[in-house]
Design brief:
single chain, about 240 residues, alpha/beta, seven-stranded parallel sheet, two-stranded parallel ribbon, 9 helices, 9 strands
């Protein structure tokens, strides 16, 4: 299996749960240095490839390397993504392009590169969107639009690939306790406890909880599920 954005946060937690269930795992990230820092946390058969999903040639490289290492592709988890905030009046072209190139273009072209192999294995794709792609977030138009695109892409591909059959689903997490969230809270001067107050369950989620949802959607337990958007958000969008 392949997990993009696999060296931190949700992607890393996802790699761990698939490895724990006996999968061979290719972790994809931009930084080998970051991988070197976390590889001791992993157990099982895994490899790393340094790639930038904003580049189509790197998307193709991810799949060719997986075939070379493991013989094929049975699960693809598109977890690579970036976050950014700001009013539309302060959103410049570079900021917009970077968010869409990573969150949408990357998801699209890694999937395109993997489709032929996934059809051979009757595999599964799980994309990582966001609650922002379902209901929008304040001062977050570009990011919300990119994750809304991931939601629509998931539904479209579920229909396109169903006859092969390849299942395509999506998780939509809300705030999750990751290094990225911790950095954002530090910059804003907020705390996890303050953030948790907006959630019906009274807390924010963990990367492991999102990873468990991803594993479920990729597993045979979800064999009759495709085109689903599974919210992992403590009731935020209820």
């Amino acid at each position: 299996m392949i997990v993009t954005g696999g060296t931190s946060g949700i992607g890393l937690a996802t790699a761990k749960i698939f490895l724990a269930h006996g999968f061979n795992c290719l972790l994809v990230g931009r930084s080998r240095e970051r991988f070197d820092k976390i590889k001791s946390e992993l157990a099982g058969r895994f490899e790393f490839v340094s790639a930038d999903v904003r580049k189509v040639s790197d998307c193709d490289k991810i799949i060719s390397r997986t075939i070379e290492l493991f013989g094929g592709v049975d699960v693809l988890v598109n977890s690579a993504g970036i976050y950014g905030e700001g009013a539309i009046t302060s959103t410049d072209e570079n900021f917009f392009d970077d968010i869409f190139a990573t969150n949408v273009k990357g998801t699209f072209f890694v999937t395109r590169a993997a489709v032929d192999e996934l059809c051979k294995t009757h595999g599964a794709i799980v994309n990582v969107a966001s609650d922002a792609g379902i209901h929008g977030n304040y001062f977050c138009a570009a990011y919300s639009a990119s994750k809304g695109a991931v939601v629509a892409l998931t539904k479209s591909l579920a229909l396109e690939l169903a006859s092969f059959p390849v299942r395509v689903n999506c998780v939509a997490p809300a705030d999750i306790l990751t290094p990225l969230t911790e950095r954002q809270l530090k910059l804003s001067g907020s705390t996890v406890a303050e953030l948790a107050k907006i959630y019906p369950l009274g807390r924010i989620g963990t990367a492991e909880e999102v990873a468990a949802a991803i594993y479920f959607l990729a597993s045979d337990s979800a064999s009759f599920i495709t085109g689903a958007i599974l919210t992992v958000d403590g009731g935020l969008t209820a």
